[in-house]
Amino acid sequence: MNDTPRDIDERYRAMLMQRSGEERLVMGCAMRETSRALVEASLREHDPQATVETIRKGLFLRFYGHEFDPDTRVKILAAIEMAAHPVAR
């Protein structure tokens, strides 16, 4: 959905493009960190005792889960779990 008038959208884009590439990159990274913090807070609110593994799985599902078919999602979640519990060799 886009309810922003086209002229405002163009004006906003022009303002962004006046910034340097570095400034735009820093803005993008900050937005990513903010969204990650919000999702993590939501997960912790739902489960205050959530482990690092649970948080990682939750972040994956919220951000990328819809981009994978069910079988691939299961494999990725298993890999997250395995990374949290490495087997001594």
Number of strands: 0
User: What profile does the largest beta sheet have?
Assistant: none
**Helical proportion?**
over 70%
- Intertermini distance: 51 Å
Give me the secondary-structure category: mainly alpha
Blueprint (SSEs and pairs):
Layout: H1 6-17, H2 21-46, H3 52-64, H4 70-84
Overview of the molecule:
This protein has 89 residues and is an all-alpha fold. The protein has a domain at 51-89. The protein is 74% helix and 0% strand. Helix 2 crosses helix 3. It starts with 5 loop residues before the first helix and ends in a 5-residue tail after the last helix. The mean pLDDT is 94.
For the structure shown, list the relevant keywords.
mainly alpha, 4 helices, elongated
